[in-house]
Amino acid sequence: RKGLRKYFNVVKRISLTKKDVQPGTIMHFDQSPENYVFSISPMLYDLLPERSPLQGMHHRKCAVIGNSGILLDSGCGNEINKADFVFRCNFAPTQGYEKDVGTKTNFTTFNGSILQYRFKYLATEKERQKFLKFVQALGDAIFWMPVFTYHTNAIPVRILTDFFWENRNKTNVKLAWLGNALKWINGYWRVKHQFKAYRLTSGVFMYTVAQAICDEIHLYGFYPFHEDEEGQPIPYHYYEPKDVNQTYSKVHKMDAEHLVLRNLHTKGVLKLTTKKC
């Protein structure tokens, strides 16, 4: 944790707050050309938290859940639910997979592609109601969006801003909107772990956040291979059919990430679970 603080304050930078910007503030995107800009609208400003949702937070044991198919038939659900704080990635569903992934969610990431592929940009009333039910099921969990990483997030952010403003009295999630923080996070991994990637996975990003507020960190579902250790095929994501032919993203260096995490596991810095619980 002390090593992480040398590079940047995760707790402070996990979300823009009302103290950081004003309506009309022009934002740039961390990994897009300078000519792409985004203006903070009055509605978005109103949805920003007064302070970081992680401010003053400290937990003994945390679980960070990746979404690999290695979780299927793992029976890790109860163990995950016993953690004091549970991070999940990319709005991954738990219903129907409780035995393996648990039900507890305290923090979930959400990127723009999810809005497109799973909720059709909330373009119909049916999709809006479906999305609302998913959000309501999170209770008071932190709903975190990496807003200013790429300019392709601009349209999803505007759609989400409208949605959360419209439904501000119907949900209890704590909204968190990542500002320009990638250079600090990437710098930390490059210097501390000699790891350089164009884009860190959401799971490794959440592990980085967990380091700032957790004493003990357990990782589940971090497994970037098409077969388990017995040679049996597994799906890319646990919530997809096994016959889905999905390739691992070229923008992520998942094998290299996994090697770093395994080394940290060997050193006792974290616990990486890739077998049955």
Automatic annotation (TrEMBL):
What InterPro entries is this protein classified in?
Glyco_trans_29, Glycosyltr_29_Sialyltrsf, GT29-like_sf, Sialyl_trans
Q: Does the keyword Zinc-finger apply?
A: no
Q: What's its membrane topology? A: Single-pass type II membrane protein
Record's keyword annotation contains Manganese: no
| Molecular function via GO | sialyltransferase activity
Where this protein primarily resides, as one coarse class? Answer: Golgi
Q: Which Gene3D superfamilies match?
A: Glycosyl transferase family 29 (3.90.1480.20)
Which compartment or compartments is the protein found in?
Golgi apparatus membrane
Per the UniProt entry, the disulfide pairs are: C62-C214
Q: What keywords appear on the UniProt entry?
A: Disulfide bond, Glycoprotein, Glycosyltransferase, Golgi apparatus, Membrane, Signal-anchor, Transferase, Transmembrane, Transmembrane helix
Q: Name one GO cellular component term.
A: Golgi membrane
A single Pfam family it belongs to is Glyco_transf_29
Q: Which family does it belong to?
A: Belongs to the glycosyltransferase 29 family.
Protein name according to UniProt? Uncharacterized protein
Q: Which organism is it from?
A: Branchiostoma floridae
